[in-house]
Every structure is written in structure tokens, then in C-alpha cells.
TrEMBL record:
Domain of life: Bacteria
Classification via Pfam families: MlaE (PF02405)
Keyword Transferase listed: no
Native species: Tepidimonas charontis
Entry keyword set: Membrane, Transmembrane, Transmembrane helix
GO CC terms: ATP-binding cassette (ABC) transporter complex
Membrane spanning residue stretches: 23-46, 58-81, 101-124, 159-182, 202-229
InterPro entries: Permease_MalE
Protein name according to UniProt: Permease MlaE
Amino acid sequence: MTAPHAEPPAPTLKPWRGWLDAWAHWGTLVLVTGRLLAWACLPSSYRGRYWSALAEQLVAASLPTVGWYAVLSALFGQMLIRIVVVTALSYGLTPYAVEMVVRVLVLELIPLTAALFVLLRVTLGHGQALRQLRASGAFDAAMRAGEDPLRLYVLPRMLGAVFATLLLVLVSAALALVLAYLNLYGLTPWALAGYTRAVGQIFDPAVTLVFVLKTLGCALAVAVVPQAGAFERTPVGEVRVLVRTAAVLLVVELLSLIGNYY
């Protein structure tokens, strides 16, 4: 007697699960980013209890980071500037030393390093903190009270991280320009007019616009991507948060390179 014919196994979605998860993640990221930017454009988000939460996050994100980052940025900037200046002098390219320092250090490296510093020091733990708030019922309590949890808990953290990134970029860019002048001309004030003219020629309107957009893009990437993981169905580990944030930063960097050099 022959054995009954076995039914073939039903098809599963395992081969497509990775793609579906990726689309769900990017969809969640776009949705959360859009809602946060909409709340950030409203003046009412900066009043009353929202201002208290925002002020707390601004201090918590910027105060512990600015000192250490200024020291590390000065050391790294001095090392890189010295290498560029010595190389330019050895090849007789002294007139181009200022442009090389500004374009390599200020335009390209400083926004990325500031964003990564804020990511590692500030925003990497925001996703875990938000998941704990959701588990404790704080999000449900806010919704029952007629509040948007994104506006109450996520928006202050996002704005604090963006402010911290912009502050670090401003501090490190100022330090880099001062160190570049000292390495090129020393303590004399007589070269200041030519130096400022050379820097101003580099920062034309197009380059300035790309630099501002790149800085804002990097700041939003490290501020939103770690928090968006808290709204996914499955928990997101720190390694995946780092990979996703690095992917967004890479896209921002590629767009800035296209804007500056093509």
C-alpha cells in the first residue's frame, strides 16, 4: 500500500521579511520626522510646560558635551591643520593652504564629527528611554489627557540634540579657523584682513547654503533616527541604531558633495 502523497509546504514570507522590516522602519522614520517637524514649527511648542521640558533637554544635551568636544576638536584640528600647512609649504602651495583647511576640516569633517559625538554621548540612549516611557504607560496617559506624546516627550529631545549639534559645529568651526590662522601667520594681526577675505571667498552663497543644509541634516539624523526606533514593533538594538544613523549621515554627506563639487 503506497503512502499518501505529502502536501507541499505552504510558502512563507521569510525571504521577504527583511525587505518588509526595512520598509516599515523607513516608513516609521519618515512619519515620525514629519510629525516632529510639524510640531517644531508651531510657536505653542515653546510655551508653558513644553518650554520647561525643552529647556531641560537643551541643557542636558549641550552642557556636558561642549567642553570635552572643544578640547578634542582643538587637538584633532591642530593635528590636521599642521599636516596640511606643512605639506602646502613643502610643495610651494601656501596660497592654497587656507582653502584646503577650510574645505576639508570646516566644510566636510566638522559637521560629521559633531553629529557623531552627539549621537554617542546624547541620543543613543533616547530610544531606550522612550521605550521605557511607553512601557510605563506615560504615552497612554498623555493621549488620555489630550496631549501628543511626540510633542511632549520626543520633540524636546530632538530639539536638544539639534541644538547641541549646531553648538558643537559652531564652536569647533571657530576653533579651526583660529588655529588655521595661528599656524599660517602666527600671532601677527597684519594678515587678518587677507585671511578673512580668503575665508569669505570660500563661503560664497552656494557653499554656505550647502554647509547649513548639511549641518541641519546631520543634526536631524542623529536626533530623530535613534528615537524613531522606539516606535517600531520589535525592539531595536544600539548596533542597528548606529547602522541606520550612519546610513542617513552617508546620504547627507553624498548630497552635500554633489552640491559643492558637481
